[in-house]
Structure formats: C-alpha cells, structure tokens
Amino acid sequence: MAVRVGVVGVGMIGKEHLRRLQRLSGLCEVTAVSDADISAAQAMAVERPGVAVYPSGLDLIGARDVDAVLVTSKGSTHAEYVLAAIAARKPVFCEKPLATTQQDCQRIVDAEVACGRRLVQVGFMRRYDAAYQSLRKLVADGTIGRPLIFYSAHRNPSVPASYTSDMAIHDTAVHDIDVARWLLGDEVVGITVATPRRNSRGGTLRDPILIQMEMSEGAVANIEVSVNAAYGYDIRGEIVGETGVATLAESNPVVVKHNGNFCGHVPGDWRERFNPAFDREIEDWVRSVAGDSATGPSSWDGYAATVATGAALEAVTIRRRVSVTMAGRPNLYT
Ligand SMILES: NC(=O)c1ccc[n+]([C@@H]2O[C@H](COP(=O)([O-])OP(=O)(O)OC[C@H]3O[C@@H](n4cnc5c(N)ncnc54)[C@H](O)[C@@H]3O)[C@@H](O)[C@H]2O)c1
Known about the structure:
Layout: E1 3-8, H1 12-23, E2 28-34, H2 38-46, E3 52-53, H3 57-62, E4 68-71, H4 78-87, E5 92-94, H5 102-115, E6 120-122, H6 130-141, E7 147-155, H7 167-184, E8 188-194, E9 209-215, E10 220-226, E11 234-241, E12 245-247, E13 256-258, E14 261-263, H8 270-291, H9 299-318, E15 322-323
Helix pairs in contact: 4-5, 5-9, 6-7, 7-9
The chain binds nicotinamide-adenine-dinucleotide.
Nicotinamide-adenine-dinucleotide binds next to α1.
C-alpha cells in the first residue's frame, strides 16, 4: 500500500519535496499539508485534489490519513514536530537542522531511543550524491590509505539580503560538517574558526570563513565557506590519505578545449548541483518507510551536526578553539 505522507511547511523546499513525492506515485501519496501561513497550505491543496489542509502541524501529525511526516518548516520549529511524530510512532523526514539547539536534538535522540526503533531521517542530502558516495567508498576500501585531511569548500555565488553571518555556519557549513563526519567515520572533538579579510561584495557579512575541525582519531577537516564567490555554486572536496589523494571531480559532464584554453560549466546554484541527490534522498526515505527500515542520516547525525555548529558559532565569537563534547552514542545508531 502507498505510504500516506503529510507535509509540514510548504515554503521553498517543502514545495520541491512535495513535487518529488508526487513523482513517486504508487510508492506514496501526499494526503495532507500544513503551514503556519494557512493560505500557502491551501494553495498547495487547491492544485492537488484529495490533499487535506490541517490547521497546524501537530494536527497533521495526529491525523489518521497520515502514515509518515515530512517536516520542511523553518528550522526553529523542527524539534516540536519531530518529537510529536516520534510520540505518534510515525516515521519522519526532517530537513536540516534536526533542531537548532543541542538540548532539543538530545530530546529527539532520547525519545527515539526510548521508542526502540529508528523513525527519523535528517535531510543531509549530500550523502545521496554519486560523487560523495564514490569518495566515501574510496576511503572505506582503503584505496588511499588512512585519511589524514579532508578539505571542503562550499561556495555560493551570492546570498539574499536576509542571510546572516551565523547562517554561514548553521545553514551552510552544516552540510560540510556532516559529510566530514560521514566520510571520515569519526566525530568532531575540537573546532577553530578563522575569519579572513572580508569579501567586499558581502558588505558587513563575515565572509569567507574557514572552519577547522579536529576529529577524534586525529584527522583534520578544513571547511571553507564563501557566500559571495561570484563565479558560481562550487562544491569542492578532497581527502588526503596516507598513500593517495581523492578529489571530487568537476561536476560538469563536458570540458571544452578551444583556442588553447579549456573550460566547463559551473553550476548556478545548489539545486542544479544537488537535484539528483535530493531526488534519491526522498525516494530512499519513502522506500525505507514502506520497508520499515530507516537507513538514511539519523537523529544522531542531526545531533552531532548541531553540536558542531554550536561549537563553531562559539569559536567564531570568542576567537579561540572550542572543545566539542557529545553524549555517548546510543546503540540504536551504531
Ligand atoms: N537540505 C538542503 O540543502 C536545504 C535547502 C533549503 C532549505 N533547507 C531547510 O529546509 C527548511 C525550510 O527552508 P525553506 O528554504 O523552504 O524556508 P521557507 O521560509 O521558504 O519555508 C518555510 C515554511 O515554513 C512555514 N512555517 C514557519 N513556521 C511554521 C510552523 N510553526 N509550522 C508550520 N509551518 C511553518 C513558513 O510559513 C514557510 O512556508 C529549513 O530548515 C532549511 O534549513 C534545506
């Protein structure tokens, strides 16, 4: 039977995931939507006969015609909805961040552990990107030896006026932090943030930044975030191992050589770069719900990422290294 999904938050990414769910007809059907802006939810439902509008996310989570929940409301609202879904024993996909504080993430982990099974998947879609998956396999296979350093660069051509300096850490670098943990198979134990000369294109924005993370087994991850890079959306990643180096290739499929030069296309934004990964991520989640076996990024991954972004925000404020202390990892997540 198709999984009946309710979507909480139909803003920018909520609409995109809704379209993805609708392309998976047969596997799932969207039966309900909700948004703090009720007219946005109603507009979604008008276009989709059979989709009910609920006055609040909590009403939607409790509804009989909802088997699983997709949370794409703004970050500060995630914890309440994820906890309600766990209490209702309904699988929930939550866009990043899992929650905005370490305490709320801990509450979610505790609730899921008490429930005894994985119900939560967090939207770290890079883990579904084919290039990152190849990079991880190379590390896991031992092809380049023990990993020593991970270099990551996250460059946006520009950001809207509403973007704040702290968002570079909790909204943007959070993806690089997650892939560092995932690629290296290790946890963050210390963070330092360097702030180079500001890019004048960003006005007063603290941009770029360099986050250096010490991992518990001794590797170091170096993350550059530049959000006024002008030339395009560029995601770079390289792992230096004891016997070799593995680098994400340029994402364009064709390189043109002409007049003594070579060039290729740089993606314009994150959608162009990661759309296939988002598609795979949502399909994987739906299949895991249908098969009752959550395998994607977990509450623990959401917790670890929020702890690390919290430490990075502290490090940039006090201009010193910050130690990262995490709770023990429950067996549910091993
Ligand atoms: N994985 C990624 O790369 C990625 C990309 C974009 C956004 N996101 C994440 O997705 C989430 C949503 O981002 P967005 O860009 O779509 O934002 P958005 O502002 O476009 O949409 C958020 C929606 O949530 C609604 N909302 C606010 N408070 C609510 C509440 N209490 N209950 C229900 N709905 C509420 C708003 O009315 C709005 O429609 C954020 O957490 C963001 O970090 C992840």
